[in-house]
Structures are given as structure tokens and as C-alpha cells.
Amino acid sequence: MARQGPLTVAARIGAICYLDEVVEARQDTTVVIHPLTDHRRTAAGKKRRDGELSSDFQLVISYNPGYQSLMKDLKQSTKQRFGAIDFDYPDAEIETAIVMHETKVDKAVARSWWQIAHRARNLKGHGLDEGISTRLLTYAGQLIARGVAPKAACQMTLVRPITDDPDMRDTLDAAINTYF
Known about the structure:
This protein is mostly helical. The protein has helices at 6-13, 27-30, 34-37, 76-79, 92-103, 107-121, 134-145, 150-159, 166-179, and strands at 16-19, 58-61.
């Protein structure tokens, strides 16, 4: 008997299957989810005895629209099979608390990182394709916890991964120099 993948198992037993960054999948494989998520509620070759999926089966997908190249967007026919929720960065207090929890830095340091990230996020569309994520803030804390100097840790995690542009780097490095 062939081993069943997580999508097949979830459909069969009525679980939630979460597909992260679904746009990274080959386009010829994403169409497999069409019959799972429309009125047919079937999986090709993976039908239950009654020909339908478990009524409790749910499929959740995530991706960052516009983050990847336009060549890696979901087809409209796929998008239309899902409800959509927009997410943004957490507000200052919540993101500061997240960073404090994940990195064990004090509130003043976490708030400084948030200020740097906030400045960078305001540059999105004005020279930056993407702002500084909460993930990058936690990476800075992890490096500092391992003994990397705060300024260097911030440059390595908050600036260099998001831009190669020398002027933009200088602008973001200046923000870091304000706090470290």
C-alpha cells in the first residue's frame, strides 16, 4: 500500500491541512487542490467509499501576495476557492512583547528594534520591496544572545537581508546607529 501524504490523510480523516507558501509549489500541482476546495469536494484517485471527502476536512493555504515575483502568484481560479484574510505587522506594543518573549531582551531594546523596523516599513515602496519582519527582529536577538554585538547583529539581520542598495543600507544603518 502506498504511503499517503498529509493532504490525503487530512481529507480522509477530516482534519485541517495547512499548506504554507503554496505559491512555491509547482503550478501543475496546485490544480490538485481545485476539486478538494470546490463543490466537488473530491480528490482524484483518493476518494472515500462514498466518493466525497470527510465533511470535516478543511484546507488552509498561506502566501505573501506580491512578495514573490509575479511569476509565482496563485491563479485566479485557485484564489477564488478560498476566503482571504489580510495580515499586517503587529502594533508596537504587541510586537515589542513578541520580541521580548522570543529573545529575552528587555523592553527598551525590543522597543528600539521596533522603532528601526517601523522606519524601514515606512520605506516599503520607496526603495524597499519589503520591510523588517518580526522574524528578523527575533533573529537579531538570537545573535545578540550568542554574543554578537548589537549593532552588528542588527546590520546582519535587519538591513543586509532586505536590501543591496548602498543608499538604502546607509539609511537603515543610520537608524540602527540612533539606538546602538
